[in-house]
Amino acid sequence: MAFSYKVQEFFSAQLSEWELAADNYALLKDVSTRKISFGPYDVFLQFNPGRIRSTAARTDSSSIEARPCFLCRENRPARQRDLPFNDSYTVLVNPFPIFKTHLTITLNQHEDQRIRHRFSDLLGLAEALSGFTIFYNGPACGASAPDHLHFQAGESGFMPLEKDFTAGSLTRVISRVNETEILVWKGYERGIITLRGSNKESLTALFNTLYRKLSNLSPEQSEPMINIIACHHGDSFIVHFIPRKAHRPVQYYFREEDKKIVVSPASVDLAGIIITPREEDFMKLDREAVSDIFRQVCMGDDEIEMIAGDLE
Ligand SMILES: [Zn+2]
Question: Cα(282) to centroid of ligand 1, in Å?
Answer without folding.
Answer: 32
